[in-house]
Amino acid sequence: MKQFLMLLVFLITGSVANAAVAEKAVFGPVQYDVKERYGKENVYKGSFKASEGVYLIKLQSGSKMPERVDIMEFTLNGEKLLKEGKYDYNFIAGITGLQTENNFEVVLKDARPSGFKRPPLPPRFIIMTVTPYSGTLQKGFYGLYVWESLKDLTALLQKIAGTESGVLAAASINLTLDVPARAEAMRKLSDRRDSSALPFITAVFNDTQLSPDIRGEAALALGTLGDKKSIPLLINGMLDPDEKTRLGSTRALSFYSEEDTRQPLASMLERLDNMRRDAVIRAVINSGWKPVGTFITLAESKDPLVSRTGVSLLGSMRDPRATDLLLKLFQEPGERDIRTIITSLGETADARAVAPLTSMAKDPARRAGKEAELSMALANLGDKASAGLIEEMIKKTESRQTRVQLQKAYKKLTGKEY
Question: I need a surface site. Which of 13, 105, 217, 320 has the fewest CB within 10 A?
Fold first, then answer.
């Protein structure tokens, strides 16, 4: 199933008839090797005859992954159908019209190595074959990992009922178009809220070789469709290495009810290490998603690490329910680190937090070891009356590191250097 979802030939309507693939080639197969190495261009020009009509161009990049060409460019009859770039597919299938006389140019090269390193390189090449095409696929160039899956994936695309939706789907993965144009096509497909496109959009989202711009739009498209089966995919998307995919996945989850996302989100946060948990926290904050109930549940957990995660998220929610719990925990922190609670209270933008924070800051015994967090929290809340209190803490602290943090808070609050 995973391999199937990773495949990326996304074709519009109709199916690839076996006869189309089996037809006698009008050109090829011909192999073009990367002979000049280490970033140097290998340019191949050729021509062939054909009857006017629509043809299938098969570009096979190596016979196994190490032989895949790093950078490729393809021009046919003066039109650049594949711009110079990396195409991380084993095959590219091009549906295009041909003339009686056809001229092409293939440019291949290795990625340029860094510095003066010249590591040994495996042989790299492409094999080009052109056959007549009798199917009904939209013209374009599409990447895939397994050539034989073309027919099955075409059947997947046939599930898209709307003609315009099908056109947008094909455009979103047509390699002839640049990434912004493909991302825009996916965005427009999302706007149509065509539920018949769900399998296609899911496949796009799951292809990690695609540009994050496109995958991020695919994530949002899943969110707009609102199918609950997509929630686990989007939860995993919050951990994606690329920020755009993380952000798109997080925003997509905001389209669902909190009742539907609470359990999978809480379970995911509970099992993460600190580094990945922090990445998810940033994604939630940047996306504007506010699953307050979920974070309240986490903050109330008896597990210190889980509770800390919930507490650290509550302040950014800017929600009265979050402030209510933080004020309660401030008075009765239990085993929780009160410095995390203080910091979170400072992020609430809720005036109710000023009085309890000020009360602690005025008491030398209670504020000991918490001066930096208290001063920054009051500065974040914009309480101008706290300037004198921060000055006092600056004068009395014996820690150079704490003094630096206090001075930053003073400048943030007053706009002046201390």
Answer: 320
C-alpha 272: how far from its chain's center?
19
User: Taking the CA atoms of the chain, what radius of gyration do you get in angstroms?
Assistant: 29
Count helices and strands (H / E) in the chain.
Answer: 20, 9
DSSP string, 133-197: --S-PPSEEEEES-GGGHHHHHHHHTT---HHHHHHHHHHT-TTS-HHHHHHHHHHHHHHT-GGG
Measured CA to CA in angstroms, residue 350 lies from 200, 216, 353, 378, 415 at distances of 44, 33, 6, 11, 21
Q: How far apart are CA 411 and CA 418, in angstroms?
A: 7
What is the mean predicted confidence (pLDDT) over 110-137?
Answer: 88
Q: Which helix (H) or strand (E) holds 97?
A: strand 91-98
pLDDT of 22: 52
φ/ψ (deg, to 5) at 91: -140, 150
User: What strand order describes the sheet that includes 27-33?
Assistant: 27-33, 125-132, 53-61, 91-98, 140-144
- The pTM (predicted TM-score) of the whole model is 0.80
> What is the C-alpha to C-alpha distance for residues 179 and 171, in angstroms, rounded to an integer?
10
* pLDDT tens per residue, range 370-404: 999 999 999 999 999 999 999 999 999 989 999 99
Q: Write phi, then psi, for 48 (nearest 5 degrees).
A: -160, 160
* Dihedral sign for Cα atoms in the order 396, 400, 401, 407: positive
CA distance 166 to 94: 17
76 forms beta bridges with: 79, 104
Whose CA is closest to 128, among 78, 93, 87? 93
pLDDT of 173 higher than 50: yes
How many other C-beta atoms are found inside a 10 Å radius of the C-beta of residue 222? Answer: 26
Answer yes or no: are the C-beta atoms of 245 and 216 closer than 8 Å: yes
pLDDT digits (tens, 9 = 90+) for 245-291: 999 999 999 999 999 999 999 888 888 887 887 788 788 888 888 89
